[in-house]
Specification:
single chain; alpha+beta; about 425 residues; WH-like_DNA-bd_sf; Heat Shock Protein 90; Beta-Lactamase; 14 strands; 16 helices; about 20% strand; HATPase_C_sf; five-stranded mixed beta sheet; DNA-binding; transcription; five-stranded antiparallel beta sheet; Tscrpt_reg_LuxR_C; about 50% helix
Length: about 425
Amino acid sequence: MHHPDLPWPLLQNVAALAESPLSEIAKRLREAVLPYYRSSALVIFTEDCTGRPQKKAGEEDIISRVSIAELDALRASLPDEAPWFGEAELAGRPRPVLALKYAPSHALLVLTDPRPADPGYEAGLDLVTYLWRVAARRIQEKVADAPPAYLLESRASSAERIRVTAELTDLHSTTLETLLAALRSSSLDDAAARSTVTDLASKALVGLRTLNDRTTDLVEESVGTAFERLRENLQSLTRFSDIEFEFIEPPLTGRALPGEVAHAARAIVRGLLLAMMEQPKLNRIRTQWDCDGENLLINVRDDGDGTLAADDPSIMRLDRRVEALTGHLQIDVMPGWGADVVVTLPLAPPAPLAGYIAAWNLAARELEVLQHLVAGHSNRTIASKLGISENTVKFHVRNLFKKIDVGSRTEAIALAHSHGLR
């Protein structure tokens, strides 16, 4: 029986957030927040999720149009983690917002058109802040413990976002450069108009290129930056330990790391440190990263009694994560002297898995439709190219979604890309 004095709705919402999968966390957080703060939409922006940095719930007109550039600009303007009320450019126009940051992961929460559910209840904002921290921590933990399927989907989504952004950049850059050429033409004698429009077009070009650079930054980290984030993330683990931790920094000239490789590497090192710290008579752990141009090379060594085992459940979980990125984990144990762990993570996506695609058992027409989806074609375009009706296209799309076990075009494209289908 529930104790009548306990706030059961709040406790149930906290439990739901603590158990929520990443795909539903924005919806769950919005449901938890609504008793205290109403809003037209809720948006989470976190770079920990390289495949889907935005998680959204609410009005479709807002969540379908909000951009990474807008969220990044809002986050950069916030001085600290304190709740911030104001007007910000979001989904293409200025809107009243409530924004909160989460310092450990640099995540951002935004509520559009916020208003207290009960203006007389002063603790409402404190509860929103608390619920956001629970959700942000849940996201951080889920990414750190990402299963193989998440890593593969994240890598595919990251590659797809770079491709689409590059195409948009080329398209709009060409358009704007043509506009500039026309406005600078001597045949146009309205100097004032030409100067004004030229300035606007130049700013648009700069903004577009900045957006492209920012999108690339989301899916890549320099090896030096990734290693520094590792040290920051491990502060809570190392600060109050009697063990000496030594971090050997990688060369700053190393190749940039794909976002999912950097995140997985940090999680792997943390897992190794936790496993090593379970050993008795441990005094020192040494962590080193390097990059040979094709792989991230991780070396973690301890001076324990050599009891770390490859068949330990925690090591086996880490090995599965390494395998998800087509990497390799090797443990050399020296009884009485400690353990030496070497992890190799390839930076390039895995080679196409034609056999896996064949295992989907797609009919010839379904495979054709999937190839058109990957090319970004609409149902109408697919129907025209294949000489069939749109309803027939929808029929084939539903069938192939069932066969490859996805729920949307985006998921189908990401999965196809992860297996080399272009």
